[in-house]
């Protein structure tokens, strides 16, 4: 056994120097080759070196195997020699691997220059070179000048390949567009050289090419105009021709009304995709050109279809939705895209999801249209009046309530009819009922805001308009109460009902306040003082102006307002008017005979004209609280001390209904001179 190991050791000690010598020789040869090709750029034959490389590699493997089998332990000298041999061999192996890698990369570059290399073969060789360049086992490689030269040559060769591929692809698939003053034409020509096209596309796909330029051209120059503009589309795919032609032309500027319907758009897009499929090279079941294009543009294309075409074509009416086939058409279109392999794995369900939401969008659009129609009705001129009966506008709880007629605007009648129609649709379409009901609430809320804003000047300046608006609000409020059973699940209507009533009353109340202000301004001319000797035309004009104001209100309110509202409103104004007039008369310290006669004349004007403001003139006694007091004031102004004493009747007479004892005493002092009869009269008034 020892003899065998001794023999092996002697072989190693002989072979190691020889192998090291061969490695150094190989390194020199590789250095010459690399320097010649990547430094001096001189062509050098490498076949002999490669043959020697294989032989040397075999010898190294055998030698390494021999050294690993030795178990020298008899002398330190032998052990040290073996370690030295192994170390020298390891260092030589490092140099050998670097030399072999450089020579292998160089050999692959040489193969690129062989005639007959196609795009795929060239890409394959460059791929192997890239792998070798990326696998840097020894850090020394990165610092070598020749290695950087190899990297530079790879980048040059790769760029040349990509440029050649793009040039060939552009030759096989020609994308052109031309813009004129008002129009634009687009031409796509796909040559039928399937073998070359296959090689080009497959190689581009292997280089991770994303075809972004193609996608951008199709989106901007083809699909975008097809979706939003009327286009002239010609697709020529005759079997005997050497190419497929797609021609597109359209106006640069097109009005909104000329935009094509969604059916036309989907049909055109499908026709374009069908003809573009002539360039859809299929590499494998999972990879093809259309899938690469889809990853770049499908989301944008689908979004464009939805936002700029489908959304505007969803019917806004129930009849339109019943006749629409959009959901079916969109699902069929989505299946077509899947069939043509225009899929990206992420956005393939976008159109189908949108198709499933069309009904919801239709309901929203329908309700938006309902609201828009209601707002258009509200904006119409509201001067035309329509007479209606009491039971049509006022929610009457008592069957004994007296019925009368009043007026509302034709606008609110049309709005009420429209609300009836909307409510009927809500009842007929359970799935959309809640949205319809909410829209009704929105309409009524908008009514309380939009109508007063749009008619602000009319409502505050023209009494008839404020009265009509009050009636309109009451009319809509009654509609709510009438349909309470259909709306009772929506508590917001209770608030809307109260708000409607308050809105109408508030506007009308502001008109009443305006009339009071106007009346008080007119009474500014009814000035009475102790310096006044007799009443002039100014006082009479003030009274007549107020009466005229009431007569005008009668003309515009009596047939418009419900009778109870009319009586309450006008009687309130008259009552304030009489109170103010009598307060000024009673404030006089001295009433001469001339002034007294003048005041009686004015009271006669009032007693003659004011009862005529009501259908039944006798009603003024019940409606106007100050009326009886006015009549009694006339009696006092015309009466004698005896008559006044009798009317007071020691506090039991009719004057006690409206006057206090102090008020009667004051009037007596103002009307009569200080005599024993006046003193007796005053003494009796307690």
TrEMBL record:
TM annotation in the entry: none
Centromere/kinetochore protein zw10 middle domain residues: 182-378
Pfam families with a match to the protein in the record: ZW10_C, ZW10_C2, Zw10_middle
One cellular-component annotation, GO: RZZ complex
Subcellular location per the Swiss-Prot or TrEMBL entry: Chromosome, Centromere, Kinetochore; Cytoplasm; Nucleus
Domain ZW10 C-terminal helical: 541-685
Stretches assigned to the Centromere/kinetochore protein zw10 C-terminal domain: 405-520
Predominant place of localization: nucleus
Keyword Iron attached: no
Any Gene Ontology biological process: cell division
Annotated InterPro entries: Zw10/DSL1_C_sf, ZW10_C, ZW10_C_2, Zw10_middle
Keywords, sorted A to Z: Cell cycle, Cell division, Centromere, Chromosome, Cytoplasm, Kinetochore, Meiosis, Mitosis, Nucleus
Family assignment from sequence similarity: Belongs to the ZW10 family.
Name under which the protein is recorded: Centromere/kinetochore protein zw10
Taxonomic lineage of the native organism: Eukaryota, Metazoa, Ecdysozoa, Arthropoda, Hexapoda
């Amino acid at each position: 056994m020892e003899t065998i190991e001794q023999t092996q050791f002697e072989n190693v000690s002989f072979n190691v120097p020889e192998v090291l010598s061969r490695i150094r020789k190989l390194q020199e040869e590789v250095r010459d080759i690399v320097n010649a090709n990547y430094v001096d750029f001189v062509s050098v034959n490498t076949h002999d070196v490669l043959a020697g490389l294989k032989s040397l590699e075999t010898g190294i493997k055998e030698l390494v195997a021999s050294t690993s089998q030795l178990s020298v332990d008899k002398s330190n000298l032998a052990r040290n020699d073996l370690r030295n041999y192994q170390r020298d061999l390891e260092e030589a192996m490092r140099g050998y691997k670097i030399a072999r890698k450089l020579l292998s990369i160089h050999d692959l570059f040489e193969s690129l220059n062989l005639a007959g290399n196609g795009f795929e073969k060239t890409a394959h060789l460059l791929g192997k070179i890239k792998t070798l360049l990326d696998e840097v086992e020894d850090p020394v490689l990165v610092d070598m000048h020749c290695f950087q030269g190899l990297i530079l040559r790879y980048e040059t060769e790769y760029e040349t390949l990509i440029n050649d591929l793009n040039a060939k692809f552009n030759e096989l698939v020609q994308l052109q567009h031309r813009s004129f003053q008002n129009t634009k034409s687009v031409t796509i020509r796909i040559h039928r050289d399937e073998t070359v096209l296959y090689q080009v596309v497959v190689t581009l796909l292997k280089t991770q090419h994303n075809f972004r330029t193609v996608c951008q051209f199709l989106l901007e120059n083809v699909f975008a105009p097809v979706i939003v503009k009327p286009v002239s589309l010609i697709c020529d795919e005759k079997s005997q021709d050497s190419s497929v032609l797609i021609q597109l032309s359209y106006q640069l500027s097109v009005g909104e009304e000329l935009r094509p319907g969604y059916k036309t758009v989907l049909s055109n897009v499908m026709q374009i995709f069908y003809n573009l499929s002539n360039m859809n090279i299929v590499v494998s079941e999972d990879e093809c050109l259309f899938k690469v294009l889809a990853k770049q543009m499908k989301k944008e294309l689908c979004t464009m279809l939805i936002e700029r075409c489908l959304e505007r074509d969803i019917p806004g009416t129930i009849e339109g939705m019943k006749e629409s086939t959009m959901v079916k058409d969109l699902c069929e279109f989505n299946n077509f895209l899947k069939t043509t392999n225009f899929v990206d794995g992420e956005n393939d369900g976008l159109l189908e999801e949108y198709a499933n939401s069309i009904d919801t969008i239709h309901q929203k659009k329908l309700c938006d249209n309902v609201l828009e129609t209601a707002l258009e009705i509200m904006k119409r001129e509201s001067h035309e009046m329509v007479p209606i009966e009491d039971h049509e506008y006022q929610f009457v709880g008592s069957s004994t309530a007296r019925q009368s007629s009043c007026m509302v605007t034709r606008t609110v009648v049309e709005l009420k009819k429209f609300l009836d129609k909307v409510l009927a649709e809500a009842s007929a379409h359970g799935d959309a009922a809640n949205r319809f009901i909410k829209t009704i609430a929105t309409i009524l809320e908008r009514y309380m805001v939009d109508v007063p804003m749009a008619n602000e000047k009319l409502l505050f300046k023209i009494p008839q308009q404020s009265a009509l608006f009050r009636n309109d609000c009451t009319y809509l409020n009654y509609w709510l109460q009438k349909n309470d059973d259909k709306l009772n699940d929506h508590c917001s209507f209770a608030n809307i009902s109260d708000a409607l009533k308050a809105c109408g009353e508030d506007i009308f109340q502001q008109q009443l306040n305006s009339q009071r202000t106007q009346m008080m301004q007119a009474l500014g001319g009814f000035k009475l003082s102790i310096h006044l000797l007799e009443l002039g035309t100014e006082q009479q004009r003030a009274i007549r102006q107020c009466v005229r104001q009431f007569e005008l209100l009668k003309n515009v309110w009596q047939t418009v307002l419900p009778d109870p509202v009319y009586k309450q409103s006008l009687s309130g104004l008259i009552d304030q008017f009489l109170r103010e007039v009598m307060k000024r008369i009673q404030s006089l310290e001295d009433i001469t005979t001339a002034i007294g006669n003048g005041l009686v004349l004015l009271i006669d004007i009032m007693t003659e004209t004011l009862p005529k403001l009501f259908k039944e003139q006798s009603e003024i006694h019940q409606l106007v609280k100050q009326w009886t007091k006015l009549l009694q004031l006339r009696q006092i102004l015309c009466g004698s001390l005896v008559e006044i004493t009798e009317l007071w009747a020691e506090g039991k007479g009719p004057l006690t209904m409206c006057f206090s004892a102090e008020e009667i005493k004051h009037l007596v002092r103002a009307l009569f001179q200080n005599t024993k009869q006046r003193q007796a009269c005053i003494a009796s008034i307690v």
